[in-house]
């Protein structure tokens, strides 16, 4: 699936993309505004989609002067599944957070990075996960950690259909990579979506290296 195009999981047509725009905010949209947001689809194609959705009652059309405006009908029976689809990205992140919360003190930090974080996913994109294993992981051995990482990748694939690709560091490895100027760490700091730990902690691990450079 594409987290940036959640309706494509059930329909590959322009209808899903238009619904995603209308579900993104409780405001009205003109055809031109929808077209600018999507950056795909012709104005005529979007108009035809909106006409179909109005006929179904899912979308309400109002007229302001000579301009038609459109908004999602929040009283429609279908609005709950529509909103659930529109929010798949946040649902995925929340599910990740809940799962990783069960790792307790073994996990210092985790983030989603790459195309899943930047909104540029393609259908066959991997979902990239960045993990930092805590130095004070207690009695959790390497085997237990590896089992958790393997299960995490499996769950990501089960939830989305995309391969889960995990990049992991121990705390001391993270500091060494930061000192060496590892580009991946800058990408995570700039674009990553934190799902465990705090962004402030992660950024603090990079600052000494930044000062030296």
TrEMBL record:
Keywords of this entry: Nucleotidyltransferase, Transferase
Keyword field contains Nucleotidyltransferase: yes
A molecular-function term among this protein's GO annotations: nucleotidyltransferase activity
Superkingdom field: Bacteria
Gene3D superfamilies from the UniProt entry: Beta Polymerase, domain 2 (3.30.460.10)
Protein name: Nucleotidyltransferase domain-containing protein
Top-level enzyme category: transferase
CDD domains, A to Z: NT_KNTase_like
UniProt cross-references to Pfam families, sorted A to Z: NTP_transf_2
Domain Polymerase nucleotidyl transferase: start-end pairs: 110-136
């Amino acid at each position: 699936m594409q987290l940036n195009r959640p309706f494509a999981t059930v329909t590959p047509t322009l209808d899903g993309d238009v619904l995603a725009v209308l579900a993104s905010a409780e405001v009205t949209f003109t055809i031109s505004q929808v077209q600018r947001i999507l950056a795909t689809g012709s104005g005529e194609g979007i108009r035809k989609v909106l006409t179909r959705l109005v006929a179904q009652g899912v979308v309400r059309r109002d007229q302001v002067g000579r301009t038609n405006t459109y908004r999602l009908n929040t009283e429609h029976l279908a609005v709950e599944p529509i909103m659930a689809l529109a929010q798949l990205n946040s649902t995925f992140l929340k599910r990740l957070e809940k799962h990783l919360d069960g790792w307790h003190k073994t996990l210092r930090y985790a983030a989603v990075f790459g195309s899943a974080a930047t909104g540029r996913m393609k259908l066959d994109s991997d979902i990239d996960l960045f993990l930092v294993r805590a130095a004070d992981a207690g009695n959790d051995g390497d085997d237990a950690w590896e089992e958790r990482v393997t299960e995490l990748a499996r769950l990501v694939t089960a939830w989305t259909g995309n391969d889960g690709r995990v990049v992991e560091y121990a705390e001391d490895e993270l500091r060494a990579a930061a000192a060496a100027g590892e580009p991946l760490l800058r990408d995570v700091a700039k674009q990553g979506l934190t799902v465990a730990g705090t962004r402030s902690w992660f950024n603090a691990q990079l600052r000494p290296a930044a000062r030296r450079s």
